[in-house]
Inverse folding.
């Protein structure tokens, strides 16, 4: 239930982000969504060339919720934001941390997951 609510919220956020860029998901034949394809388990390419992972599943769920056809494309990480700015694709769905520098360049939706941090040390360590 909560995941369905989250998907609906995320779909709304994506639609708002797309329309803010003067695009309309309904007017487009296909939304082009980029991910890296090299960050398992979030996005990776299988031996047979298929793009899989959590980000791919989220993309498919969002596109189904928005009732639009989406094409997933891969983009090298370092070129992700510049390629979005160059309009090579409509959105990015990749595990990208929200930083002040990135917020100056692109709009972010709400986070779709949070990774808690922890430290690990040997049991007999003095730490």
């Amino acid at each position: 239930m909560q995941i369905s609510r989250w998907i609906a919220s995320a779909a709304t956020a994506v639609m708002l982000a797309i329309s803010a860029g003067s695009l309309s998901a309904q007017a487009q034949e296909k939304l082009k969504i980029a991910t890296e394809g090299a960050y398992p388990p979030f996005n990776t390419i299988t031996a047979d060339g298929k793009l899989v992972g959590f980000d791919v599943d989220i993309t498919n769920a969002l596109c189904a919720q928005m009732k639009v056809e989406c094409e997933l494309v891969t983009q090298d990480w370092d070129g992700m934001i510049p390629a979005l700015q160059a309009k090579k694709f409509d959105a990015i769905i990749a595990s990208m941390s929200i930083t002040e520098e990135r917020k100056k360049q692109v709009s972010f939706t709400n986070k779709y997951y949070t990774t808690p941090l922890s430290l690990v040390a040997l049991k007999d360590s003095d730490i």
